[in-house]
# Entry
Amino acid sequence: MDFATIIGLFLAVGAVVGGFNLEGGTLEAIFLTAPLLIVIGGTLGATIVTTSMRTVQQVPVYLKVAFFGQYHSFNKAIDTIVHLAEKARREGILGLEPELKAIADPFFRKAMQLVIDGTEITVLREILETEISYIEERHKRGIVFFQKAGGFAPTLGILGTVLGLVHTLGSTSDASKMASAIAAAFIATLWGVGLANLFFLPVSDKLRMRHEEEMSYLELIMEGMVAIQSGENPRNIRTRLLSFVAPHNRRDRD
# Structure
């Protein structure tokens, strides 16, 4: 579980709700059916129009990535690649085949299998770059989905408020009732702006961060496997791959 995401959402929502309560507001005044229906339903509907059903079906997966994610240990990957490079120098490329069973990451396994199969270096890099580009495209669909939802939500909130005001001003003659009805109409704007800035846009940015981290991880693996296929010295491979890791996080074992 990503505690930064959980803590951040609780802090943001708690600050807004807590401030509202301190001003004398009540939660019952916020949870009104009509504004929720207009904002949530309208936002999801407008966002779905801009994408495909395949992307919509993947929304639970995107949320799982944002809230739980997958930790990539760059140092561990470097240690593994250097170990493979050392074994390849001692036993040859075919000596890496028994190591395949210990590799859980699908991309890593594919790259390693290509190396074992004797794939030419240029072709190896081309295949892995193509794989990375398709992974990147899949990630961007989730990022854009929540980004667009964050753009639509405030607009749907304003639309809900306008509809509420039209109904209020057109059907209410009692001034005391009109004031409360106008206040209720602005709940739609509250939900639109709140969902955009407290959920949709933060989730989009979190997915973008996960994406950038995974792209760096995949590029590290690609460079490492290409270096092994090129027969580079394991020490040089470690030195090159450590450039993917921030200096204060590097673990140089040489």
In short: The mean pLDDT is 89. Residues 121-171 form the longest helix (51 residues). The chain has one domain: 38-254.
